[in-house]
Automatic annotation (TrEMBL):
GO BP term (any one): proteolysis
SUPFAM superfamilies on file: Subtilisin-like
Keyword Zinc annotated: no
PROSITE patterns associated with the record: SLH, SUBTILASE, SUBTILASE_HIS
Species this protein is from: Desulforamulus ruminis (strain ATCC 23193 / DSM 2154 / NCIMB 8452 / DL)
Classification via CDD domains: Peptidases_S8_Kp43_protease (cd04842)
Family that this chain belongs to: Belongs to the peptidase S8 family.
Protein name (record): Peptidase S8 and S53 subtilisin kexin sedolisin
Residues forming the catalytic site: 77, 113, 308
Any single Pfam family the record assigns to this protein: SLH
Domain SLH residue range list: 827-887, 888-951, 956-1016
Record keywords: Hydrolase, Protease, Repeat, Serine protease
Length: 1016
């Protein structure tokens, strides 16, 4: 009888042969000679904002598309990279036109925020082959550094002076970015708002952007100061599309943290842009403790979230809009730029106007409406009270939008209403009866100096009258900007048939052959025929005077990679670890032949066609097949499991073993039918899976996750080994060298159904006990004290430390994890420039390699600086391998929950390692005395062990200054001295009240590790 496993095996082989035969001759005839491109366009926010279409737009003058050339953006932020032109990030080095240091202590970036902001605007992508770049990669950057390290605060001059400095800076910046906010004002029109408004009133061509703030779900939900300024463009955040968490999977939703609204009810923010998991430039000399990255891509790029990120993306979009207007011979005002930006925004369905303002930025809609459509962009000189100007517009039957914006006179805080000069806009229909007022207010909006009107279904061929009137102008005349015309139509293409386009909402549109079509793939554009537009492209349509389609822009992205896993029925995991969801209409092809989801083979080289607006995959093409038999299958029969269950009654666990494969260079699959899981659950004991060089102990509850829907499936644990030689592996710390001990191991559990469909299991509900065994002799020549177990993060693409409990006698490392992936036993090397000749160099390097101590700066350790209570507590927690608590203990009034060592202190208090002062404070920044350190060390010596420290057997203290040792510390000093963890100082004294250096603390930690290793 043919076994179930054999059926699955032969079905897979048949499927691969079948797919191979379906490949077109030019492809399979030379399939194995292909050189796949595994690069990925990672700056997904650009696609959401329509930016790639502008990069490829033919501008006529420079021939390079809209890239920000000729524009300079000023940024006021904490600092920029290392504050040194020689070592400035390569993506920013050629873009910087000047720096002004308002901080007083240099223009370096304390936390990565300013560097990230700058990269999102003008980053060239030099260190990513152009894949991760800013919105305006050829614009100039003028940077104003404001963070003072000693004061731990921003030194912001008056907003007027800040803007004035930028206005007169090299490159003549006319866009200014402020991703900072004052914490003393919450949606109130204050003196910062006044200062900003006055500057723009005096300099009407300066566009000033302000982040809305990240405090919506707090006691201060309104926009932060000076975001309430009338003449600012205040920017809030939508979610991104990376799908990393629930805050990054829906670009049509305002993210929860994004602040909104003002105290008097004005529209703030005006616009939105993506703000979660934004990928941009990272400091070249990172500070692992102080930097604010939420994820690291590599040593040059990292992820951040916040309205700051949204503001930077919007600033880059504005630089492109301004470049376009200038190339048209215009000198745009701030009001004109604001109105044009708002004209193209996408209104998010189902989101209230108070949350989204005028919608999410779409720079492509703004530009294409001018470049190919009928949109008028006007800067009018002004109106006095009672005056009005009228304009007419003949409708082509498509949605019609009007945006009026003006720079209002600054208002004295606390006196009267915020709006000083009051202009209103309205549209009157062709019958004279239908009247549409700005922002939906009847008889005019008397709060806001930006007003919009959208008419979804105007009457084709009929004339509408637009009227801008001055209700009250106190300081006049009041200039204004007006943008009006038909909005480009937009949708996601699902099918092309002859000259008909069918979209995913079911709408079908016919296109004449005379229509110009521009096809943009990433950052490359071509003129195309209609049948060349791929399904899934984001299409922008411009209509002519008679309502016919006159121009079409289609945007899409192409991604080349390898298929790592399939999750559920619509998610792909590719080689860099990112997940991509298939659109409902997605299709899978080999050549011209369509495949089913279950037939798509793992490890195949694939090409994805992706919609840039929501990053859904619309087409998967198999470009190259995997090996026919990439895995050895080691199926476990029902008999094997039954015997293991019987044996578990004496051993306390079910042990399932696999024999050594014939070819150890190939991965192994340990497989058994999922229907056997119920037997394991009923037995109630943990299950240990043993493979060559690896064992995994799984709580039995994990098998309870396999329900009736998985009947007939196999649970496969795939284990692959990889030899990487002597090469250095990437670490989160770019100055750390990681060298593998033996082979790396990759663990991938998967459910596989009889039809070939699969579900990759990326994490477990419980922590699993994993033991990796390195070959004997593999540690020869290595420093055993620098060995640890590391896990590779597909998100950040670096190796992170899991634990440091490696046993050189057995070659084993045992750790607990609830995440699967790639693991390895690695030797770490880390040094600092200022310890070359230091007496404690060896111990400092050991502790740095084990990530127990860190530098004060990327390349300096400062060994002779005094160690603080907070620093020593953090070292102690890391030495013991403890996880840090997420919040600090409530009893310490001087320790905020977000302070760098609050998590370590919380853990140390919970575990009884430290305590605070009697007045309810902890004193994290106080120097630690030697007797305090002795007391904490003794608690650490006792932690987790049943061995008693017999104080009655202690030798008498023989320090010359023993009378100075506090009574509460005498036994602790005796213990650490007797066990060799601490020694006396010069002249035979212990110096109990003196302080300890960072170097001495590192040495003590090495001795603590040695003590615990010998006494457990």
């Amino acid at each position: 009888m043919i076994s179930y496993q054999s059926i699955v095996k032969y079905r897979k082989i048949f499927a691969l042969v079948h797919i191979f035969l379906l490949l077109p001759w030019p492809l399979w005839g030379k399939a194995w000679a292909l050189e796949p491109n595994y690069q990925l366009e990672n700056n997904l926010a650009a696609g959401i904002l329509g930016i790639p279409a502008l990069w490829t737009l033919n501008p006529g003058i420079n021939g390079l598309g809209l890239t920000g050339k000729g524009q300079t953006v000023a940024v006021a932020d904490a600092g920029l990279d290392g504050g040194n032109m020689e070592t400035l990030h390569p993506d920013l080095k050629d873009r910087l036109t000047g720096v002004k240091d308002f901080s007083g202590d240099g223009w370096g970036d304390p936390n990565g925020h300013g560097t990230h902001i700058a990269g999102s605007i003008v980053g060239t992508g030099a260190k990513s082959q152009g894949y991760i770049r800013g919105m305006a990669p050829e614009a100039g950057l003028y940077f104003q550094a404001t963070y003072n390290e000693a004061e731990k605060n921003l030194r912001i001059p008056s907003v007027y002076d800040l803007l004035n400095d930028a206005y007169n800076a090299p490159g003549q910046p006319r866009i200014h970015v402020n991703s900072w906010g004052a914490n003393f004002s919450d949606g109130i029109y204050d003196w910062n708002s006044y200062s900003l408004d006055k500057f723009v009133w005096d300099h009407p061509d300066m566009v000033v952007l302000k982040s809305a703030g990240n405090g919506y779900k707090t006691a201060k939900p309104f926009v932060s100061s000076p975001g309430s300024a009338k003449n600012a463009v205040t920017v809030g955040s939508t979610e991104g599309v990376r799908g990393i968490d629930t805050g990054s999977d829906n670009p049509g939703q305002v993210v929860g943290f994004s602040s909104r609204g003002t105290f008097d009810g004005r529209i703030k923010p005006e616009v939105l842009a993506p703000g979660t998991w934004i990928l941009s430039t990272r400091k070249t000399n990172p500070n692992l403790e102080g930097d604010n990255y939420i994820g690291v891509y590599n040593q040059y790029y990292g992820y951040m979230s916040g309205t700051s990120m949204s503001t930077a993306l919007t600033a880059g979009s504005l630089a492109l809009l301004r470049q376009y207007l200038v190339q048209k011979g215009l000198s745009p005002s701030a009001a004109q730029m604001k109105a044009l930006l708002i004209f193209g925004t996408r209104i998010l369905p189902g989101v209230s106007g108070s949350d989204q303002g005028f919608g999410r930025v779409d720079a492509e809609r703004s530009i294409i409406a001018m470049d190919q459509g009928d949109v008028k962009v006007l800067d009018e000189k002004g109106l006095n009270t009672g005056e009005e100007l009228t304009y007419t517009y003949t409708s082509n039957g498509q949605p019609f939008r009007v945006v009026m914006a003006y720079t209002d006179y600054p208002k004295t805080p606390g006196i009267g209403k915020d709006l000083v000069n009051d202009l209103d806009v309205k549209v009157t229909g062709p019958d004279g009866k239908e009247v549409y007022w700005g922002n939906g207010y009847i008889d005019g909006d008397h709060l806001n100096n930006t007003e919009g009107i959208l008419i979804d279904k105007p009457q084709k061929g009929e004339t509408y009258t637009i009227e801008v009137s001055a209700s009250e102008v106190v300081h006049g005349p009041q200039p204004f900007a007006l943008v009006y015309g038909s909005l480009p139509w937009q949708g996601t293409l699902s099918e092309v048939h002859d000259n008909e386009l069918t979209f995913n909402d079911g709408q079908t549109l016919r296109v004449n052959q005379e229509v110009t079509i521009r096809l943009t793939d990433g950052s490359a554009a071509t003129e195309a025929a209609i049948n060349e537009i791929p399904a899934g492209a984001e299409v922008y349509l411009v209509y002519g005077e008679e309502g016919e389609i006159s121009h079409l822009d289609a945007l899409y992205n192409t991604i080349h990679s390898k298929l790592q896993a399939k999750e559920g029925s619509n998610q792909l995991v590719i080689e860099d670890g990112t997940r991509w969801s298939l659109a409902e209409e997605a299709k899978i092809f080999v050549g011209d032949n369509e495949l089913q989801w279950s037939e798509l083979p793992l490890e195949a080289e694939i090409e994805l066609t992706v919609n840039p607006g929501d990053d859904k995959v619309w087409r998967v093409e198999v470009k190259n097949l995997p090996d026919n038999s990439p895995y050895y299958s080691l199926p476990l029969s029902e008999k094997d499991i039954t015997i293991a269950i019987q044996n578990s009654r004496s051993s306390g666990k079910v042990v399932l073993s696999a024999a050594d494969p014939e070819d150890t260079s190939k991965p192994v699959t340990l497989a058994f039918a999922a229907g056997l899981a119920s037997k394991l659950v009923s037995n109630g004991l943990p299950v240990e899976l043993r493979l060559p060089g690896l064992s995994i102990e799984i709580p039995v509850g994990e098998f309870g996750r396999i329900g009736k829907s998985e009947e007939g499936a196999q649970l496969q644990l795939r284990v692959a080994w990889q030899t990487v030689g002597e090469q250095s592996l990437p670490a989160a710390d770019p100055f750390m060298y990681l060298r593998p001990v033996g082979k790396l191991v990759e663990i991938r559990p998967t459910l596989v159904w009889p039809d070939g469909s699969q579900l990759a299991i990326s994490s477990s509900n419980s922590f699993l006990k994993v033991t990796i065994t390195s070959p004997l002799g593999s540690t020869a020549g290595l420093n055993l004290q620098r060995l640890g177990t590391y896990r590779y993060s597909e998100l950040s693409q670096v190796w992170g430390l899991v634990n440091i409990d490696y046993n050189p006698d057995t070659g084993r490392s045992t750790f607990y994890t609830n995440r699967f992936g790639k693991f390895g036993i690695l030797e770490a090397s880390r040094t600092f420039e200022d310890i070359t000749d230091h007496w404690a160099r060896t111990d400092i390097e050991i502790m740095a390699a084990r990530q127990i101590v860190r530098g004060m700066a990327p390349q300096t350790f400062a060994p002779d600086l005094t160690v603080t209570r907070g620093q020593f507590t953090a070292m102690l927690v890391r030495t013991l391998g403890l996880s840090e608590e997420s919040v600090s203990p409530a009893e310490f009034s001087d320790l905020p929950g977000d302070y760098w060592c609050a998590g370590a202190v919380g853990t140390a208090v919970k575990m009884g390692l430290v305590s605070g002062y009697g007045d309810g404070t902890f004193g994290a920044n106080d120097p630690i005395t030697r007797e305090q350190m002795a007391a904490m060390l003794v608690r650490a010596m006792r932690y987790g062990t049943e061995k008693n420290l017999n104080e009655s057997a202690l030798n008498p203290i023989h320090f010359t200054d023993e009378e100075n040792i506090s009574s509460w510390a005498r036994s602790s000093v005796a213990i650490v001295a007797q066990e060799g963890l601490m020694k006396g100082r010069e002249a035979g004294g212990f110096a109990p009240q003196e302080f300890t250096t960072r170097a001495e603390a590192a040495v003590v930690m090495v001795r603590l590790l040695s003590y615990r290793g010998n006494n457990w």
